[in-house]
Amino acid sequence: xxxxxxxxxxxxxxxxxxxxxxxxxxxxxxxxxxxxxxxxxxxxxxxxxxxxxxxxxxxxxxxxxxxxxxxxxxxxxxxxxxxxxxxxxxxxxxxxxxxxxxxxxxxxxxxxxxxxxxxxxxxxxxxxxxxxxxxxxxxxxxxxxxxxxxxxxxxxxxxxxxxxxxxxxxxxxxxxxxxxxxxxxxxxxxxxxxxxxxxxxxxxxxxxxxxxxxxxxxxxxxxxxxxxxxxxx
Length: 233
Hints:
alpha+beta, two-stranded antiparallel ribbon, 7 strands, disordered C terminus
């Protein structure tokens, strides 16, 4: 396995080592992707680089009186969560960049942690909106979206997944491939009673060329944290 941090060694531009298109069995154990709600950063005061700007990604976790609504307790209420990293402090994040940006609906982001051993933990959290590869993240988003549309789940994580997929206008070819070729993710496996639902599937297909091509086209439209696409705001 290649355990070298991707963004530590390669620039963030086309033709780089591949933080977007992970190589299964080689670089798919490095970093992870997330989908996140977009919130106004104008009144924020957590020392983030996008503080005071219009938009930024946030976690689905909310802390009240030291307890997180995901069930964890003894959480520092002043800790602000970036990219659904649970209650990780900002200094735990080595790299964080937007992949697809659609405020005011949401973001898709990529990040690497200073402590690589924590990445698996965040990808297996029971309020999971993180995945090692983009194809796994899309599968996860469709599972949460189906919980909203088919089961009436109104939790923010299900609503944001649904709304973000809608505004991204994912091509039908991509939708069909994700639904038919990707193995079931943690949401479907949990609903089916799988006690190992949080564990990553052993066989992940490579990102197909047509999905990669669509992503590269969309990457031309991304905005830095704190910026926004005026057509959607």
